[in-house]
Each structure stands twice: as C-alpha cells, then as structure tokens.
Design goal:
3-stranded mixed beta sheet; Trna Endonuclease, Chain: A, domain 1; 14% strand
Length: 387
C-alpha cells in the first residue's frame, strides 16, 4: 500500500495528466492490459475517454471530466445527465459508465447517479457511477507503482510527471509547425526541470489495434480462430509499442544531449527533424517516390557499415547539384560529409537517419558514453552516399 494516504494529494496540473492517471489506476484496478484511451485523435468520444474490461464486464466507459477552468471543482447533476446521454451513443454498447473528476464528494450527485442507474436498468442500459478526487486517491493508495509514477515525491521515488502527449497517424504528427516548435521548446525546458518526466506518443494505429483486441476478447467462448486473431493483433501491438519507445528515446537524445539540444532549439529546424524522425521510426517503410537509398556512414566505419533510409530521387538530384557547386568553390572540402548537406536534406533525411543508427547501436547494447567515444553523436564525423 502506498504512503499516499498520509498526504493531502493535489490533482494533476493538467487534464491530460489526469486522464493518464485515471487510465493507469483503472488498468491496475481491472487487470486490463488492453485498456484503451479513446478519442485522442479527433474521433467522436461520445462521453468516453477510457474504456476497458473488468472481469466479465465489458465494455466499461470512463469519462475524465474536464472544463475550461482546471481543476474541476464541481460537477452538476445536469452535467452528469449530459455525459450519460452522450455515452448512450458509444459503440459497442456500454455495461457501465463512470464519471471521474477532481471535484470533492457530492452526496446529491451520487444519489442522482443511483437514480439514473435504476432508470437505465429498466431500459436495459448501463449502470452509472461517479468518482470524486478523494475516491480516486483512495484507489491510488492500493497501487504503489501508479502512485510512484505520478506522485514520486510521496512514494520516495523520482517524480515522473506527464510532460506532453503527441498524437500521430501514419507516422505524422497531428499539429502544425508553429505548435510543434512551441511544444519542442516546452518539452526541452521541462526535461531539464524534470529529467524523469514523460512524453507520451499516441498512434492512431495503436488505439485501433487495442479496439480490435477488445472486440475479439468480447467473444466468449473464444474459438481457436479468434484466439489466433487476438495473438496476431497483440504481435502487431507489441511492434507498435516498441516503435513508440524508440521514438521517445530519439526525442530525449535530441532535446537533452549536449551534441544536439542547443542546435535543435536555436539553429536547426527542430520541427522538420522531429517530424522526419517520427515518420522514419514509426513507419520505417520507403514511400513510393523514394526510389533511392541514402547510406549514412558512421565514424570509424568498417567496410559495408552504414545506416539506410529511403530518399526522393528529386532530393538526390538537389544534393548532387550542391556537391558539384561545393567542389568548384572548395576543392579540398569533403562534400560527402553529413554537415555539408543542404539544410532541407540534412533535416529531412540526414539527422533522422543518423538518429536511427544511434538507436540501432543502443538496441545492440551500446550506451551513450560509448557512442560519444566513437564519435557517433558528432554530426561532422558522419559521411553519406547513395545506392
């Protein structure tokens, strides 16, 4: 049991963190590893932010109440009615609906929830429950790992606050460049203040897989074909989550390591690099127009050692033209150096491919100090060619 019970625990500073806290609590409470955070990419939520299974009860929908002013202080019976009405349109049909908020306990609201449940039962609809902030804290005290993750200062472990949630579809971030640049700057500052802080990458494809898994798990009893399908989906889910972890490692390196952090914020086009890194690592498949391959050669590379990524033929032509111009102007210059790439090519292909190579080394057991010694984090030490 967590020591949290002995403290006056404040609500999270943002609704996004509150939603993640709720998701973690219910995932442990229900022992449901396939729990889904719903509607984070622009879908209609129908009053549901999280849904999952508790034993044989599926699906259960959770609404993490948010308002323009945060944290939420009160929830009215009218607001509960509105959320319940939305939840009636959720597919698949809910068995239970839980409204969770940072408001304090309200006997009137609880009584109203019971009345709705009684009426819903007559109509064959879901039960309705309301959880206040104090109710949520009581649940939290039984889940040490969740308490440590979100309230490390109470659990005597480093606090790991949620610093941001970035959503993607087909490897593309769902924000414009201006918003992304601000988010990058904010994240860089936050990682300096909270080294244990977390960024969450939410892929549309991951949520779709979780939804499919839940749908097949609802088939009881499950025949062999259904079990095979669930296993296939879980294989795909594992692959997606591993890719997300690699992206988080890449972003952390770019925004915190001395070789990149200042350049990312003050010199380079950080938004272009982050977009390219995510697309490369989350899809890792050449586009139809990427008919050539960029080969990036690390420092002290042995014969045949390189990192590859697809590149548009039109961009190869631009790079060749730049190399020709540089040779004419600076005969002794190594025009195959990564640092001499045009900025557009360097940010779109060069740096992301270099980061991909660094991650491959980390996957093989190398650590950053070792890679520093080998100059793998020195952009001036890499060269490139094409195939």
């Amino acid at each position: 049991m967590s020591n949290l019970i002995h403290f006056d625990v404040p609500p999270p500073k943002s609704w996004e963190h509150f939603e993640e806290l709720c998701a973690d609590i219910f995932q442990f409470e229900w022992s449901d590893k396939s729990l889904v955070r719903h509607g984070r990419l622009g879908q209609s939520q129908n009053g549901v932010d999280i849904y999952g299974r508790h034993g044989a009860v599926w699906p259960i929908g959770v609404q993490c109440k948010r308002k323009s002013t945060w944290p939420v202080v009160t929830v009215s019976t009218k607001e509960l009615d509105e959320e319940v009405e939305k939840a009636k349109s959720f597919e698949p049909k809910l068995k239970e609906f839980i409204l969770v908020s940072t408001a304090q306990s309200d006997a009137t609201l609880q009584k109203h929830a019971r009345s709705i449940s009684e009426e819903n039962q007559k109509l064959g609809l879901f039960e309705v429950h309301v959880l206040s902030w104090s109710d949520l804290v009581r649940k939290l005290k039984f889940h040490e790992s969740v308490a440590s993750k979100h309230y490390g200062q109470f659990a005597k472990t480093p606090i790991s606050p949620l610093l941001g949630t970035w959503t993607t579809k087909c490897g593309k971030l769902q924000v414009d460049d201006r918003e992304l640049l601000v988010a990058i700057r904010e994240l860089a500052h936050d990682l300096e203040d909270f080294p244990e802080g977390r960024l969450v990458i939410q892929q549309y494809e991951t949520e779709a897989l979780l939804t499919e898994i839940q749908r097949f798990q609802a088939i009881i009893p499950a025949d062999l074909e259904t079990r095979e399908k669930i296993s296939d989906l879980r294989d795909d889910l594992r692959k997606q989550r591993r890719a997300e972890k690699r992206v988080l490692t890449a972003i952390n390196i770019l925004l915190t390591h001395q070789s990149f952090s200042e350049l990312m914020i003050k010199v380079w086009d950080g938004a272009a690099i982050i977009r390219a890194v995510l697309e490369l690592l989350l899809t890792d498949k050449p586009k139809l127009n990427q008919t050539s391959n960029l080969r990036l050669h690390p420092p002290r590379a042995v014969s045949g050692e390189w990192v590859t990524s697809g590149i548009d033929q039109s961009d190869v032509k631009v790079i060749f033209e730049r190399q020709s111009d540089l040779r004419d102007r600076y005969p002794k210059l190594n025009v195959n150096s990564l640092i001499e790439m045009s900025d557009v090519a360097k940010f779109r292909y060069g740096i992301p491919t270099m980061i991909k190579g660094i991650l491959e080394q980390i996957d093989s057991g190398a650590d950053l100090p070792d890679l520093e010694d080998r100059k793998w984090l020195d952009t001036e030490a890499w060269t490139f060619s094409f195939s």
